[in-house]
Each structure stands twice: as C-alpha cells, then as structure tokens.
User: Fold these one by one.
Assistant:
Number 1:
Amino acid sequence: MLIDYHTHHVRCGHAVGTLEEYVQKGIELGLDQLGLSDHLPLIHVDPATYYPEMAMPMEELPRYVEECLTLKEKYKHQIDIRVGLEGDYIEGYERQIEDILKAYPFDYVIGSVHFLGEWDITDFRQTHGWEGKNRLAVYEQYYDAVQKAAATGLYDFIGHIDVIKRFGFKPEEDVTHLENAALEAVKRHGVAIELNASGLRTPAEEMFPSRRMLEYAHRLGIPITVGSDAHQPERLAQYLDQARLMLKEVGFSQLATFDRRKLVSIDF
C-alpha cells in the first residue's frame, strides 16, 4: 500500500502544480492513495499586509474542495483520492478554525504548528525571528502549542511534529522532555502523527520527527501516516521509500489512513 498524505499545490502561493497534475503524477508513481492537503487560509493575520504567498485566499477554499471532489470522482478507478487540509493551529482561534473545518467534507485535517504568534517559524524569509531569542524558550512555546493542538479535537494527525528544528536553530539544552510531552499529549487525545520525509531536504537533514521520537511514538502506540510535503509534482512521494523503511525498522507495521475523518489502519 503506497500512500502520500501531505501535498501542496498552486493555490497556496508557494507551491507549483495543479491538483490534477498531482493526481496524474500519483497515478504514474503507482500510489494507492493520494491525500490533497493544501493550507488553511490565513485567519490571524491580514493576508494583504503579511508575507505574500503563504496560503490560499479564503475565497479559494470552496473552489479547492470542489476541485478535489471532482478529481476524486474523475480518477476513482485509477487512484483513491482523499480530500484533506493542513490546518494551522493558532491559539485563540480554535472556534474560527472549527467553523471552517465543519463546513467541508474533509477526509482528514493535518494539525500543524507553523506560527508562534505572527512569526512563522517554518518560513525561510522569517529566520531572523530567532535573533536575540532564547532558543529553549522558543522550543517550549512551540511544543506547548503542539500539545494544545492535539487537545483541540480539531485534527486527525499532527504534521511534522518537530519542524521547529527545520533551519538548524537548536537550544544547547536537551529538549527530550519537551518532545516526549508533545507525543504523550498526542497519545492522550487519540491523535495520530505523520512521518514527514521533507526534512531530508532542509537544513535539519532528517525527517520530521527524528528517529528517537519515532521510537517513543511506537512505544506509546501512536498511529502514524506518511507524507512527502511535496510543493511540486516532481517531489510527490519523495523519500517515502526511506520513510517506510525507517518505520519498519522502528517496528511499525501499519499506516494510518483517513476516510471522512475516521482513522483506518492498513498494513504496509
């Protein structure tokens, strides 16, 4: 069973390729399931004055979902399309996020922490935000947000759970306790995580999460899915062969898939 549950497309502004191009690439690669999961529109900053090309405009969201559903039907005999969304967790905006998510028939929603306030810690244009900051304090704030995201009940799995390491900014102090606490919150609230292979092409040079975190997630019995986080069709399923190999080495034998917000475990 070959799946990829984390993809981005031209609507979000910082990716290329149409949804149909991703579907056609998925068929070419022999994927059994393809998750379409573009970014939730910005809700806590003004898109007109914030950094450009961060997420699809709000008026595009219904068109995105409609196109996903159209492609799901069009290609149903060739590939199983799952309609998803990567929904930022923004503390204090839980009600607004919930209202948006309830309005559409998603198969799954990825809960990702990109923002600490108005600072997107995953945006290469905003790495200056680390200047003068206590790195441990940033990590504490980030993992606190991950725990809160898991507790909301809004998300099916947590995306790139240790993406805070993306650009190589790490505290001198050990942060194992923060990582473990986040995973324990995920387990406590019945959420899954993903092994996001895109970390291999970032300064972090390892997947999200690390092998150590994967091993702890396995011990806790947390369900796991996989995603390439592709932002262009050519990167669809990139490194997922390595991701599956690592999962098997750690001891995972099943992947989490999602159908109308219900988790379905499959052997791989």
Number 2:
Amino acid sequence: MARIAVITHELDRFQGRRGLLMRRDSPYMLFDVLEELKRRGHSVQILKGISAKPAADIAVLHLDVTVTPPDYADYARRFPFCLNLGATDISKRRVSGAAIGRGDRWAGKVIVKSSLNHWGTPEQQLNQRARRAGKPEPFPGVQPFDKYEVHASLADVPAEVFERQDLVVEKFIPEPEPDGFAARFWLFCGERERCTRHVSPQSLVKGDDTIRREPVPVPDELRALRRKLGFDYGKFDFVMHEGRAVLLDANKTPGRARNLSSFIAAGNANLADGFEGLIRQVS
C-alpha cells in the first residue's frame, strides 16, 4: 500500500468539519477520491505548506491557485513522483483555445473573463486569510472580476480590457442545441476518465442548470493538449466548434459534488483506479 501526500497552500482549507455531527468535509473532488483510496488500504497525509519533510511514495500538488508559487513546485519535486507537477500555470491566457486579441479577425460574439481560475476567488481568499494572520499577502494585486461579460463583437470590448493581464477575451462559441446549449466536461486521473456532454437552457453552461447529459468520447487533440499542459489529474471544460475541440478551462483542483449520486460515486471509484495505476508506475 502506498503513502500519499497532498500538498496544499499553508493557508488553504482542503478539508474541515461541518453540520451538527461535525463530519469531515471538503469542497474538492480529490477528497472523495482519497477516501476511496483509504478504504483500499492506502494512507493519506494532508500537508499545509512546505515545511514538512517529504515522506511519501507519491504526492499530489493540490494548490487551489492559478499559478503555483515556485517554492511549492520545488518542494513537490522532492517526492518520488508528484501529480500535476507540470501543471503549475492554468491561467486562461495560457490554456484557452478560444482566446483572441484586439487585432484578430472574428465576426461573432465575444466574452470577457478573468484569466485567473474561478475569477481569482481562491487567491483573494488566501490574501484575506494572510491579512487576518498578520502575514504578507501571497498573491498581492489580485483584482476582483466576478462576472462574465458577453459583447456582440470584438469592437465592443472596452480598450482597457486588453491592457489588463488578468483578463482574457474569448470567442463566445457554446454548442447550440434545439433546447439550449452544450458544453463538455472531461474528468481524469491517470488513465481513467469520464467525459460528459451537458445541455443547459443557458448559453453559459454550468453543472447545476443541466437539463440532460450524455457520455461522449474524448477528442485526440484534447489528449495531446493534456500531455502538453502537464496534467495527471483534473478537469477540462471544452466545446466542439467547427469540427474541432476547443479547450475553455483547465482545472487541477476540481470541485466536489455535494450530493453524491451513484453516477458521481462510481466516477470517483474510477478515478481512484486511475490513481492506483499511477502508484503502480512509480512503485
């Protein structure tokens, strides 16, 4: 059985307790995968910060931030193998296949997003906790941008948007459906995966407003992109546009479904199988 270490930011809250019974809980999908791995006999240690001596067979670099600080990446290299060590920058400016510049030729709608993961909320929360603890902000200068802005054309985007490195302008290309719009979500760990197409009445497709879903294959170009971006575990959001896959978002700390259906529970067991496959590769 393997010793697994999960590297988190010193101010992060990977897990806690909630409810009247104070049950262990987490906002992250990895929590449920680890619970399954523990049931199979593996041991798990959650590391806050980089002060502990590396003592594990395999680690997961699980910092809920867009760009992993270099000292955390250096620390992760001290383990025999660390998942997602290559995925230290998931900014949309780097990963998005729909990003466009002010001078590009595009006649359709565009959308303005934060280049930071989840609007930069994780960085803002860590900064807030640091201030409360009397410590320097780990991510100074993060500006809030907590909404999407859809414009009819590239020319309608304010000039100052293109001057901000924390924002990105993308082609607005949801998959049209007779009853709404579709987006695709690919979850993976090692060689195990599930890829699902979600249809929503909203053009910005989210999991909580899905009216139907179906399994779909993973395009080969997306697999190649996963290797290029250095992901061992995570979630890719993408659409099919003009016959090709377009990556919109890459997340190395995907969130956890609060109400675990049999669909989600079976999926987590599958991802745990993928994690064990990685363990076998390095043992």
Number 3:
Amino acid sequence: MKRTSIRKHHSVIAGAGVVALATAAITLQSATAVPAADPAPLTAGAAGKLATTISSDLGADAAGSYYDAKDRKLVVNVMNAAAAKKVRAAGAEAKVVKHSLQSLDEARETLKSKATIPGTAWAMDPKLNKVVVTADRTVRSTALARLNKAVSSLGDRATVQRTTGTIQPLIAGGDAIWGDSARCSLGFNVTRAGRPYILTAGHCTSRVQSWSATRGGPEIASTTGSSFPGDDYGIAAYTATVSHPSAVNLYNGRTQPITRAADPIVGQRVLRSGSTSRVHSGSVLAVNVTVNYAQGTVEDLIHTSVCAEPGDSGGSLFAGSTALGLTSGGSGDCTLGGTTYYQPVAEALRATGSRIG
C-alpha cells in the first residue's frame, strides 16, 4: 500500500531544484469508436470534473478517459454500448474498448510483483487501452529478459517501449533553493496552521535540512518532513523573513499567480518552471504512474511530455493558476528531448496538512 504519511528519510540522491520564491504510436485494434453528435467544447478542468462524475456513475463499465485538447472534448472508454449511450448523454465521446480497468490494474500488480526493476516505469494508457511499460538504457541482459517475460505473460494488455535516456530523480522548479549537498527548485509556497512553508520534492528534502536562496547564503527555510520513496514530496518551514507569494517564476520578468490545486487529466496541456531549464510546455501522458528509481519505487505519479534537466527537481507543474505537480524525475534533456514524472500536488497538500497560498 502506498505511504502517505510524512517521514524523515536519509538516503542520498543526486542534486535537486526549487519553484520561484515568488514561487508507440500503437493502433488499438480492439477499440471501437461509437458514432455520436459532437459534444460541447470543454476546458481541461471541466473535462476532469466530468470524467470523475461519469466514472462514478458507470462503475465497472468505465475503462478510463482522456482529454482531446485539439477538439476540446472528453473521451471515455467503456465496456459496452449501454455505457456508451450514458457517456454521450452526459456530454462526452464514448469508445468501446476490450480491457476493463480491473483487468489493467491486475496487469500492473503482476508487473509490480514480477518486474520491479530500476530504470522502468509503467502506466495505464487510456488512448491505447493497455499498460505501457517504459525501460531505460540501464535495463539490459537478465533484467530486460525478466521484464519482457513479465510483459509477455500479460498478452495484449501490456507493451514495452525503450527510452535512450536514464530514468532518475531530477532537480527542478522555479527559482533555485540551495542546500549544503544539493540544489533544487521550490515547487509551491503553501501555508500550514497559518505559517508559510515550501513544498518541493521529497528526494530533495530527504537530503537537505537547511535551505538558502543563494549558494552558501543564510538559511531561509528548514525541512520539517519528507516522503521518498513511495511518494516524492517534502515540506520546509520558512525561518527567515522573505517574500513568499503564491506564484511561479515564468523567467520573462513575470510570474504566474497560483490560487488552487487540482489533479490533471490525460491530454491536458501543462507548463513546468525550473531553475536549470526554466519554462517548458507539454501535455499529460498518463496518471497513476509507477516509477522504479534506483533509490526505490514511487507510485501514483504524473507522466508528461515536458522536458527537464538536473537542478529542476521539486519544481512546479501547473496549468494557468492551478498547481498540478512537483517535479520528481525523468529521462532525456531539453536539447534532444525528454519526458518527466511529477508528484501530484493535491496528494502532497493533503498529506502535509497544507494549502496553496
């Protein structure tokens, strides 16, 4: 079971980064589109809320969903025509698919028990209606054979894709924050019991106790809790009188005010701000992702097409004024391209008893 309590953790991790102190294309042969009149255009936020409602109403007949950003519509996978009719009536597009969420969850449990290998990650891809397993360049010989055997046992419920990069924790966010052994990015400024705190990556706070705004500078915050691996969030209390607005640095002389937190939906367009590579954009590829770092497994992450680099860890993933995630790790870079994983902010806020602001 995934851990949600805050705890101290002292494993050593590569350098990290902090949010502004301002703060396969594979054709799914089994999926059948159900013709219907075009649904009314939706924002990503509205689509996410509608997806939650529809999933609750359909129960086991729902098989995942995603947002079509181009056509501004929600696509909901279903197991039968009767469920498809309900989806269309609710204002979304329906697609009848082969595999249920229960079947795909069972596939992920099989991978967890048989293929928890450093350098791998997996998630249910609603567009493909299967579990996509990513293996980086460090997965070779015996480990690769073990992975392929586990995936093959799942039939057409899972597929493997390779990445040339290395899946590892990064250091990211907005403006840099410094510790004696790492540089990270501040994710979001938050409050708890009326006091200001920094929310960032757990693999940053598990390594650093005292934080500064400049390398070797005076302390501005002190770590009070960490959760890594299992999760990847940490919280540090401000110990100095410094500005701590609820905003993200856009690195163009402006900041983006942050007023709320939410969970993203697959297909949503997002931005990331980091102290190394600054601001980059992309889309959400998957949610509820399992990533097997060398330091341990982290579950329920967000996977995006946004690039990041060392020094970007802990930084903010957001859409407009909505906080979505804290940069955890990834592979590749912002020159040749890469993908990144994020700790959901909403979960971190609940676990730390904090809120945006």
